[in-house]
Q: What sequence folds into this?
């Protein structure tokens, strides 16, 4: 790592042709991957990522470059090259302010850092998860378990005088299995992931029970029936069904979509965009959640952002550049996968706030409709889609039978007005990765149980 004086010199060089803001993003990340295929360890890979991103702004224009050569001489050269791409014809050259080091506490505490644990202990975890799959009583044709741990350290400094850092540790098991039932078989995968160190695996039952349930759910899907087609009420279970909100409105509320006029929510702050029952929050400060951190990837402390309150649009998610384009402050949402990406506004932990409605009544009052207990992935935008991987048909107010996987499609701004029930019990989820312009970022999306008065439902299509 270069000295603070050298950081200052690089930033000044970046500003030499008239840019009004410059930032250095240093990253060092260690990652371990252990592959367990059908009970045998096939590969152990360790990876170290080290580099720096250089980011320049001039009004609403930007340039970005990156390098894995951290020498002072090279960083000066990179800054000079980028500065030539963003010239200001005036004579107003910004200056680097004196650094003020700011420290923010990461909400995700780590007890056992990955590097302090030998690989034999980690191999044991992977094999125990594999054995749990085999001991589930389900006929599994093939099963793989990948163990991952990551330890990322970031240091961010900018021409406004900010100097800050964060350390982010995660532990993850990726389960993959093909389950057979008669002549049918179905493959699926699922992650068991927490933003902690090796203490994640302290209680063996937590991840072995998770593994057993994973393959049991695949078998249930193999034996499911096709859903009727038509327009019906849909009840979405608490927890991971919050993916609905991530896709229905989350991406559209990021400043990149708003500034690019790719959202139905442009110029609607203060306007009603959803049912009175709907309050949507994005909060990167919640302890124990995969999307939480001390700071975003621009050095801004993470924060709780209320995006929709009682159906009224109250704000957008903004990174520094997006905020400039919209005339809004940063919301601690500038995120990136690594130093090779420029930051853009991204979600962290996005959820529907708890309501006051009775969970049981939501199903009992439905003559015929769909109950969604589990979701897979989805796609966002004006028209969004979510994959139903664990769904059931409701008949006469009771769960009747499991339905084959299907995809629900709707226009976010329309369907949000059709939410007529929101339950009292808010339940979180493990989380996963969201992919967008700045790469893969860890997120969660969750909710209490809720009901939509009507959605178009098609036949089963996902096994």
A:
């Amino acid at each position: 790592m270069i000295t603070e004086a050298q950081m200052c010199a690089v930033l000044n060089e970046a500003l030499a042709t008239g840019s009004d803001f410059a930032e250095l993003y240093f990253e060092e990340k260690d990652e371990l991957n252990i592959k367990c295929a059908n009970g045998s360890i096939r590969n152990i890979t360790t990876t170290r990522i080290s580099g720096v991103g250089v980011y320049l702004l001039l009004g609403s224009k930007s340039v970005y470059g990156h390098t894995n050569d951290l020498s002072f001489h090279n960083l000066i050269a990179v800054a000079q090259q980028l500065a030539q791409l963003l010239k200001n014809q005036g004579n107003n050259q910004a200056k680097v302010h004196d650094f003020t080091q700011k420290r923010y506490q990461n909400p995700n505490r780590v007890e056992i850092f990955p590097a302090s644990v030998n690989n034999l202990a980690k191999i044991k975890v992977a094999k125990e998860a594999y054995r749990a799959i085999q001991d589930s009583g389900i006929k599994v044709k093939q099963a793989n378990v990948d163990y991952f741990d990551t330890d990322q350290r970031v240091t961010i400094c900018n021409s406004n005088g900010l100097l800050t850092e964060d350390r982010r540790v995660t532990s993850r098991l990726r389960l993959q299995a093909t389950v057979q039932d008669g002549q049918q078989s179905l493959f699926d995968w699922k992650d068991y992931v927490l933003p902690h160190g090796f203490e994640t695996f302290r209680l063996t039952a937590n991840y072995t029970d998770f593994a057993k349930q994973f393959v049991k759910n695949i078998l249930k899907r193999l034996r499911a029936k096709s859903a009727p087609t038509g327009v019906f009420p849909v009840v979405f279970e608490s927890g991971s069904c919050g993916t609905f909100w991530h896709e229905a409105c989350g991406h559209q509320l990021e400043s990149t979509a708003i500034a690019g006029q790719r959202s139905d929510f442009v110029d609607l702050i203060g306007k009603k965009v959803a049912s009175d029952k709907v309050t949507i929050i994005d909060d990167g400060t919640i302890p124990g959640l995969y999307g939480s951190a001390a700071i975003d990837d621009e050095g801004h402390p993470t924060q709780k952002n209320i995006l929709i309150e009682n159906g009224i649009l109250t704000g957008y998610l903004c990174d520094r550049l997006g905020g400039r384009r919209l005339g809004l402050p940063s919301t601690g949402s500038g995120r990136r996968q690594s130093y090779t990406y420029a930051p853009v506004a991204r979600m962290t932990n996005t959820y529907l706030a708890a309501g006051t409605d009775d969970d049981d009544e939501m199903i009992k009052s439905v003559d015929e409709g769909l109950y969604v207990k589990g979701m897979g992935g989805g796609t966002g935008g004006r028209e969004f889609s979510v994959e139903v991987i664990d769904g059931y048909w409701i008949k006469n107010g009771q769960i009747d039978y499991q339905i084959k996987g299907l995809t629900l499609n709707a226009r976010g701004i329309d369907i949000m007005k059709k939410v007529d029930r929101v339950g009292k019990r808010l339940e979180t989820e493990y989380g996963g990765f969201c992919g967008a312009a700045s790469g893969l970022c860890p997120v969660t999306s969750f909710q209490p149980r809720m009901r939509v008065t009507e959605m178009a439902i098609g036949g089963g299509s996902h096994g």
Notes: The chain has two domains: 4-222, 230-457. The first strand starts at residue 21 and ends at 37. DSSP finds nine helices and 22 strands in the chain.
